[in-house]
Amino acid sequence: MNLALDIAHLLAGGLVVISFVLLYQTRLVSLLDSYVAHAVILGCAVGWQAISQHEPALYVTALLALVVKAGVIPLALRRIVRKLNIHREVDQVVSVGLTMLAGTGLTALSVLVMLPVTIHESSIAREDLMFALAVVLLGLLMMTTRRNAVSEIVGFMSLENGLVLAATGAKGMPLVVEISVVLSILIAIFVIATFLFHIREQFETMDVQALDRFRGDLHG
Amino acid sequence: MVEPLPISDFIGGAMVVGIPLAMALLLALLPSRGWTPLLNCLGSAATLAAALGLLRQPQFHNDIFIIDDFNIYLLILNSFVGFTTSLFSASYIAHEIASGKLTLPMLRFYHAMYQALIGAMSLALVANDMGLLWVGLEIATLVTVMMVGIYRTPAAIEAAWKYFILGSVGIALAFFGTILLYLAGQGALGDGLPALAWNRLHQASASLDPALLSLSFVFFVVGYGTKIGLVPLHAWLPDAHAEGPTPISAVLSGLLLNVALYALLRCKMILAANLQTLQTAPILMSMGLASVLFAALMLYRRHDIKRFFAYSSIEQMGLITFAFGIGGPLANLAGLLQMTMHSLTKSGIFFAVGHVVQAKGSQQFQDVRGLSMSHPVLAWGLALGVLAIAGMPPFGIFMSEFLLVTTTFARQPLLALLLVSGVLVAFAALLLRLQQMLLGEPSGVNRPIEASTLPLFAHLALVLIGGLYLPAPLLHWFRQVALLLG
Questions:
Q1: Residue A216 domain-assigned?
Q2: Could you tell me if residue B320 is inside a domain?
Q3: Which domain holds residue B373?
Q4: N or C, which end of chain B is more exposed by having fewer CB within 10 Å?
C-alpha cells in the first residue's frame, strides 16, 4: 500500500516539476519537447491510478494521454511551428526568474490551500489534488505570461493535464473518462485546426498581441 | 433510499436535449442549400414544443438528470428564445449571404453549430450530475467560440481567441470545483454517480465537509462567474458580442449567461443548506454590485453599438446576481423575473440592432443617426427595447428592478444606494445613445432592409405583458422557484 502511494506521489510530483520546466522554455521546439514529457508522465500517473484503484476504464484515459497528448498533438504543433518558420523564435514576456518565482509562489499557495481542507481524504487523493492544483495554476501562469499562440495552447494543455490528474485521483468520480476524451477531442481538433490555421491565414505572425490593434472600440 | 422514478417520465427532457443535437447532426451532414435556415427554424420549433410539453409531465430525477420547477422555467425560456432567434437568424443570414459577408457553404457549419449550442445548453439545464452540467456548459462555450470567429476577420479572430483563452480558464477552474464537490459528496454518499448528483448533495448538504464545499464554491464562482461575465472576469464578453454574428450575440446574452448563472445557483443552493460553509451572499452581492457599477460607467464612451449592449448585459447580469446574493423569497423572485425579462428584452434588442447594422453597413454609433426617419419600424422596435432594458415602466424590467430595489432598501439601505446609482447611470447612458441613434438627419448609407420584425415585437409584447400583468399561476410558479432557491 505504501509503495502504491509513493509511486503515485512520485509521478504527480514529476508532473509539477515538468510544469516548471515548461515555464522556462523560451524556444517553441524545446517547449514542445518538454510538453511530451509532461504528457508521458501524466499517462503513467493515470495508468498507475488505474492499477491501484482497480479501475480499468482509466486505462483509456492513460492511453489517450500517451497517444494523443504525447504523440499526435505535439507532432501537429511541431509541423505548424516548422511550416511557419518560427522554430527559432524566442517567446518571453516576463523574465524567466520572475516567472519561476511566481510559479514557486503558486505551488506554495496550492499546498497551503489544499492540505488543510482535505484532511479527511485518503492521502492519495489529498496529495494528488495538491499537485494537480499546482499544475493547473502553473498552466494558467504560462498562458498569461506567453503571447505566442502555440505556447498558449501548450499552457492550456498542461493545465488540462492537471485537471485529468485531479479527476483520476478522486476515486470513482463519474464521467472522468468521458470528460477527458471530450476535452482532448474538442481542444485538439477544433482549436488547433481552426485557430492556428486561420490566425496564420490572416497574419504572417502568430503573435497574439499583433491582434490587439484590431479593436472595434477606442479605449481610454 | 428514494425509489427510482420510471425513466419514461424523462421523455420530455430527453427530447429537449435530443432534438437539437439530432438536428445539429442532420444539418452537419446535409449540404448547404437555400432551405437550410428553414430546417433550423423547424428544429427550434420542435424543441420549443418539447419544452412546452414538459409542463404536462411530472417532475423527475435520477442520478444523472433532473426536471424540477427551476429548470423547466429556463428550458422553456431557452427554447422559446432559441426559436425566435432562429427566425431572426434566417433573415439575418440571408442578408449576410447576399452581401457576401458569409458564403453559402458556411450555412451548414453555422446552423449545425446553432443547434448544437441549443442542445448543449439544454443538456446543462437538465443535468442532475454536476459533472454533466459542466460538460453541457463547456460544449456550449466552445461552440460559441467557433461561432464568434465565423467572419474570419482579424477582429473576429481576436475576439474568439480571447474568449477561448478566458473561457478555458473558466473551464479549468469550474472543473476543479466539480472535483472538490465530488470529494465532499463522496464522504456521505459513497463513490460514483450519487456523489455528484445535485439533489442528493442538496439533501445531504448538512453532513458534508464544509471546508471542501466552501473551497469548491470559490472555484465555481471564478469558473462559472467568467461565463456569466461578472466583473472582473468579464473581459471576453464585449469582444465576443461585438465580433460574432448578431443572432449569436442574442443567444449569448439572452441564454448562455443565464445558463451559467443557473449552474452557479445550483452550487449556491448546496452550500446554503449547510450552515458551516462560507457565506455565499457577500460574494455574489459584491461581484454583482461591482458588475453593475463598472458596466454602467463603461456604457459611456462606447463607439460600437453591439459592444455597448454587451456592457448593458454585464450590468443586467450584475443586477440578477446581486438579487440572488441578497436571497430570500422576494429578492429571488426579483432575480428570476429579471432573468426572464432581460433574456427576452436583450435578445429583442439584438434582433433590432442586427437589422440596423445591416441597413447602415456599420456598427459604429457615429454612422447610425436619424433612424426614425430612415427605418421607422426598426426605430420603434429599438426604442421600445432600449426603454424596456433601461427599466422604464410599464415594461417587465421596471417591475423586477423595483422589487429588487425596495427589497434591498429594506435589508441593506447603503447597498441599495449604490445599486440605484448604478441603475440610474446606466439609464442615462442608454437614453443618451438611443436619442443619438433615432433623432437627427439620417446619415451615411440607408439601405432598405427586408427585416422580419415579428420576433422583435413578439419579445417586446411579452416583456410588456410581463410588466402589466402576470397570470396568477405563473406568479405562483415563480414564487415556488424563489422559495426553492432559499
A1: no
A2: yes
A3: 280-486
A4: N
The Cβ of residue B410 has, within 10 Å, a number of other Cβ atoms equal to 12
B396 within domain boundaries: yes
Question: What per-residue confidence (pLDDT) applies to A204?
Answer: 44
Tell me, what's the pLDDT at A173? 81
| Nearest-angstrom CA–CA distance, B207 and B188 | 7
Nearest-CA distance A215 → chain B (Å):
6
Residue A119 lies in a domain: yes
CA distance B246 to A214: 19
Q: Identify the domain containing residue A86 by its residue range.
A: 2-204
pTM of the model: 0.91
Q: What is the DSSP letter of B67?
A: E
pLDDT score at A81: 77
- Residue A31 grid cell: 517547449
The identity of residue A48, as a single letter, is W
Q: Is B242 on the interface with A (CB under 8 A)?
A: yes
pLDDT, position B385: 96
pLDDT for the residue A215: 46
Omega of the bond leading into A74 within 30 degrees of 0 (cis) = no
The angle formed by the CA atoms of residues B105, B109 and B114, to the nearest 5 degrees, is: 140
Q: Which residues of chain A have pLDDT under 70?
A: 1, 87-92, 121-124, 185-220
Question: In terms of CA atoms, which chain B residue is nearest residue A178?
Answer: B135
pLDDT at A203: 44
- In this prediction, does ipTM exceed 0.90? no
In a domain, A27, yes or no: yes
Task: Using an 8 Å CB-CB cutoff, list chain B residues near A216.
Answer: 155, 239, 242-243, 303-304, 307, 363
Q: B19-40 as b/e, with b when 16 or more CB fall inside 10 Å? A: bbbebbeebeeeebeeebbebb
- Is residue A220 assigned to a domain? no
Owner of C-alpha cell 503513467: A44
Q: What DSSP string runs through chain A? A: -HHHHHHHHHHHHHHHHHHHHHHT--BHHHHHHHHHHHHHHHHHHHHHHHHHTT-TTHHHHHHHIIIIIIIIHHHHHHHHHHHTT-TT-B--SS-HHHHHHHHHHHHHHHHHHHHHHTTTS-HHHHHHHHHHHHHHHHHHHHHHH--BHHHHHHHHHHHHHHHHHHHHHSTT-TTHHHHHHHHHHIIIIIIIIIIIHHHHHH-S--BGGGGGG--SS---
Asked if the Cβ–Cβ distance from A143 to B209 is below 8 Å, we say: no
Listed as ranges, residues in chain B with pLDDT below 70 are: 1-5
Residue B252 CA to its chain's centroid (Å) = 6
Mutating which of A154, A157, A175, A198 best tests the B interface, going by the most B Cβ atoms within 10 A? A175
pLDDT of residue B290: 96
* Domain count within chain B: 1
For B460, list phi and psi in degrees, rounded to 5.
-60, -40
Is-contact A159 A168, C-beta < 8 A?
Answer: no
Q: Does B176 touch chain A if contact means CB atoms closer than 8 Å? A: yes
Residue B60, strand partner residues: B67
Residue A195: the pLDDT is 52
